[in-house]
Structures are given as structure tokens and as C-alpha cells.
Amino acid sequence: MDSASQDEYDNFAHLLPPSWKTQVTEWLQEDTPSFDYGGFVVGEAPREAFLLGKGKQTAVLAGAPFFTEVFTQLGCEVEWHMKEGETFEPVKHVATVRGKARHILLGERVALNMLARCSGIATQSKKVKDLARGCGYKGIIAGTRKTTPGFRLVEKYGMLVGGIDPHRHDLSSMIMLKDNHIWSSGSITKAIQQARKVGGFSLLLEVEVGSEAEADEAIDAGADIVMLDNIEGAELAGVARRLKDKWRGQRKFLLESSGNITEENLHERAINEIDILSTSAVHQSVQHIDFSLKIQKPKN
Questions:
Q1: What pLDDT, on a 0 to 100 scale, did the predictor assign at position 8?
Q2: Choosing from 146, 190, 246, 294, which is the catalytic residue?
Q3: Which of 151, 282, 288, 299 is deepest in the core (most CB within 10 A)?
Q4: Annotated catalytic, 146?
Q5: Are strands 254-258 and 276-278 parallel, antiparallel or unpaired?
Q6: Which tens digit of pLDDT belongs to each residue from 82-96?
Q7: What is the dihedral of CA 133, 205, 282, 62, to 10 degrees?
Q8: Number of C-alpha atoms within 13 angstroms, CB side, residue 211?
């Protein structure tokens, strides 16, 4: 397969559901609910605008399909000068937008806000993954479901572009039984049995536990993934090794470590007895990437 064909198969935009473009329409409606006073001032003269990647750090470009769709809905064209997923050093001429002046400005802030957040998540995701690989960790780095309501698709997309696993997208994508589920149902075993009745064979089942004894119960009851929540340091390594040794050849399961994982303590959690490291540090409170869109003066 040649590189052009491979790029086509690796296009994350092909993951997006049919409904995603309506979200872009809603963003535009939110930003201009009535009169466009600034647009009245500039009119509809044809203009060209440069998208510039700024800031002070090396960044990953993510969110290109959403950015392009903003301007497509406004009758503009976008020409990209780099590929999504590539890194850039500021200041970088990332893309050029062409269209009527007021249409470019109608889409400017909506497109920039989205691109800044999506690229920030991709940049942080890549950083955390690279740190984990530098520690010798071979498992999965994942985000969490602690995303912004109404903006989950963009944030999960940024994680994918940054090279990590986005984790479950919603309550329907996987069965995850956390402490509240366990307490409300009475026991780990009972909660798993109830979930299996309705989840069938096609959904993985994950259980959050806070101790080795709870992990044993979850594995014995048939959990596919056991999340060792807020178990850290030497205790985490010991629990993970004992569980793998005890159940080897009897049960198939993955171990996930989550809770309070940061760049600073990642090296303590990145042990290969853990199959999955999930952290909201890749998408909550991440630094956005600074972009600007500058309309160019007409050439006389």
C-alpha cells in the first residue's frame, strides 16, 4: 500500500458519525443568534485569511475536520498546509481560509476555540504517552469519560489524534461498575451478575475496586477489566503481580490503574503488570494551543 492510500485509511475523520455536522451548525447558531453587526461593517468582499499556530510550545494539530466544516457551512474554503497529527513549532502557517470577509469572521472564533482545545488535548495526550514509553511502559494510555458536556466528540477525537486510547465514549459503550453501583446493588458479585443479564456477550465489563480482596471477587465473578482505583506506589505493583500470578491460566482479565495520575508520578504507575493507565490529565485543564486567523490585506 502506498503512503497516499495509507493516509486515506488512517483518516480519523472517517470515524465521525453522521450527526457530527449538526454540532457545528449549533456552534454557529450559538455564536450568532441574531444580527451580525461586525459582518455588516466588513461586507462580502472576497478575502484570504491565514491560520497561524502560535504560543510557546511544540504542538500537535488536531480538529481539522471540525475547523473545515465550520467554514464549509459558511461558504468558505480551507487549504491545509500540514497534516492533522503532525507537530509544529510556533509561529506556523497552518492553513489558509478563503471566502467572503463577513463569512470568515462569522466562523473565526468558533473554529479557533474548537481547534485550540482539540489540539491542546492531542498535544498533552502525546506528551503523556511519550513519557510513559520513556519509562519503558508498553501498555495502553487512555483518557476518561470526564469530558465537557456537548463537546465530548471533539475531546475524544483529540485523544485519538494524540495517539492514546479515548476509553469508553458513554454509558452505552461498555459496562463499568463503580463504587456507587456496587454499594447500591449489595456486592461486586451481584452487580456483575445483574449486568451480565442485560449486557450480553458483546460488551466488556469493567469493575472499579479499592483493594486486592475486591479485585479477587471481581475476577472470580467474571470481570473483563479490573480498575485498581487510587492504589499507588509499591502497593500497586504488589497487588498487580499477585493478581496476575494467582489467576494465571484460570481467568482472562486486564488490570487498569486510574486516579491521581499526573506527569510527575507517572513513572510510579507505569509498570507493565498494569495493562491500562487511564487519566483525565490528558483532557481536563489542559493548556489550549494558541491559534489566530488573520485576514490579509488585498494586494493592489
A1: 58
A2: 146
A3: 282
A4: yes
A5: parallel
A6: 999 999 999 999 999
A7: 90
A8: 4
